[in-house]
Design goal:
Rossmann fold; Arc Repressor Mutant, subunit A; elongated; mainly alpha
């Protein structure tokens, strides 16, 4: 910061749909900055445009923030000294400050209808001129205003924009200059009485003493309007930081057509919050140093806002998978199990103690929680299904001979669940069947796990009892018999 004000940042979503991962990234940047600098993180809900049917999206946002590990110091559900923190509860404030502007001749009522404005925009575009408000109502005589109101027209309120240039001193981009003439007088209060975004956000940020506004760079074009309003209302200017956008693999803005845009989708795919927050902070170069996989505390320490927001970042799901796998290996089994149980229906019926024993055995073989299901079944279910690949292996001419030898080797073994016992049994099967290498191990893997990828055979032997091992060999041999 360039001044000595208390550091206060905010995240102010308008929950009109699923929680977009780019929006999550903006929230994360604000949170990391606040925690690194010892400042306050404010959660404010922009809900003046929400219909009753859209209210439930607010719950999705709050729950998503908590899931990914973002907490807030002030907000809708925790309160604070500068609330309320929901725009629909601040309408009197917007009315008050709009009146200040109109009383001082800095704003005026506009009676233009949407149809009239649309026609003017189309004419300007046809002439190759950037569309802007013509200023038609700026000097409207009082008698004409009264006539329009008598006709039932409800005016919007527009802010008067002067001439000259407006400079935004952006924390990330540096100085950016805008021509005031290209902006035109803009609406601050709609004809419905509701505040426009550009007005409400300034009143809210100023009254909540926000010192640094961190948001995506698509808001940079709005910032000249905000600066004009700050100055007109006599508010102290905050700093602005507009971070680059998050892009899809095709280098266009990340959206639902890429299949990875919503936090809910990524969560359902089995990514854990530690990995997703780590990835969103890392992608685009926002974390200093060479280490990629970081804990929450390490992320706070390494976060650099200027680096984080400098260049557009492409969302790489393969990299996220790699990072997720790394975090899964670091997390305690209890946390992995908790995340996994939250994902599915009926998993609560599984033996929790057994699952906690097995998770460390299989965790090296998964990238996402979704992949855990089949691997855990190998160790928690007596009967297993054979994959198509396993069935193909079992149909090989020699598979029955290998598995028959395996049953004979297991039968007298008292405790096959050790490394030494496993090695001894495999040696016996090799000698008895006459096969080795893939021809030996592939039928054993297919028969005991039902899959051709997954935990090492040694782990399967060491974590299944003799009864289960023999049962599975018998089922595999029964399957082979049906193929003859």
């Amino acid at each position: 910061m360039t001044d000595d004000r208390e550091i206060r940042v905010r995240f102010s979503p308008s929950p009109t749909g699923m929680f977009h991962v780019s929006t999550v990234r903006t929230a994360l940047f604000n949170w990391l900055y606040a925690r690194k600098e010892g400042g306050a993180f404010i959660l404010r809900i922009e809900d003046t445009d929400l219909s009753p049917s859209e209210r439930y999206y607010e719950t999705i946002v709050l729950e998503g923030l908590r899931w990914i590990g973002i907490d807030w110091d002030e907000g809708t559900d925790v309160g604070g000294p500068l609330g309320p923190y929901r725009q629909s509860e601040r309408l009197e404030l917007y009315e008050k400050y709009a009146k200040v502007l109109t009383d001082n001749g800095l704003a005026y009522p506009c009676y233009c209808t949407e149809e009239e404005l649309r026609a003017v925009r189309e004419q300007m575009l046809a002439k190759g001129v950037p569309p802007r408000y013509s200023g038609k109502c700026r000097k409207l005589p009082d008698n004409k205003r009264r006539r329009l109101e008598t006709e039932g027209r409800k005016p919007a309120v527009r802010f008067k924009v002067g001439n000259g240039s407006i400079q935004v001193n952006d924390f990330i981009h540096g100085p950016v200059t805008f021509d005031a003439e290209s902006i035109g007088d803009f609406i601050i209060i709609r004809s419905t009485g509701m505040p426009a975004y550009n007005f409400a956000v300034v009143v809210d940020d100023a009254l909540m003493k926000v010192s640094l506004v961190i948001r995506s760079e698509d808001h940079l074009a709005n910032t000249p309007r905000h600066i004009l309003l700050y100055k007109a209302l006599g508010f102290d200017l905050p700093q602005f930081a507009h971070h680059a956008l998050l892009l899809g693999p095709d280098k266009t803005r990340l959206s639902k057509r890429h299949g990875i845009a919503a936090l809910e989708v990524l969560r359902a795919q089995g990514y854990v919050p530690e990995a997703l927050s780590n990835y969103l902070a890392w992608v685009g170069g926002g974390l200093g140093g060479t280490k990629e996989v970081l804990s929450r505390d390490e992320m706070v320490k390494a976060f650099d806002l200027k680096k984080a927001g400098k260049k557009a970042a492409v969302f790489d799901q393969a990299k996220l998978c790699w990072m997720n796998a790394a975090h899964l290996r670091f997390l305690p089994p209890e946390e992995v199990l908790g995340y996994w149980l939250d994902m599915g229906v009926g998993r609560i019926l599984r033996d929790r103690k057994r699952l906690l024993e097995v998770i460390p055995v299989v965790i090296d073989n998964v990238e996402t929680l979704k992949q855990l299901e089949g691997l855990l079944e190998i160790f928690t279910e007596k009967n297993i299904a054979f994959s198509m690949e396993a069935e193909e292996v079992l149909r090989a001419d020699h598979a029955g001979k290998v598995l028959t030898a395996l049953a004979a080797a297991l039968e007298p073994a008292e405790a096959p669940g050790s490394k030494e016992a496993y090695q001894d049994i495999v040696k016996q099967v090799e000698v008895a069947s006459g096969y080795k290498g893939k021809s030996l191990f592939m039928p054993i893997r297919a028969g005991l796990s039902g899959e051709m990828v997954g935990p090492e055979l040694e782990k399967i032997f060491c974590h299944l009892d003799k009864s289960t091992l023999l049962h599975r060999v018998d089922r595999a041999l029964s399957y082979i018999a049906t193929q003859d």
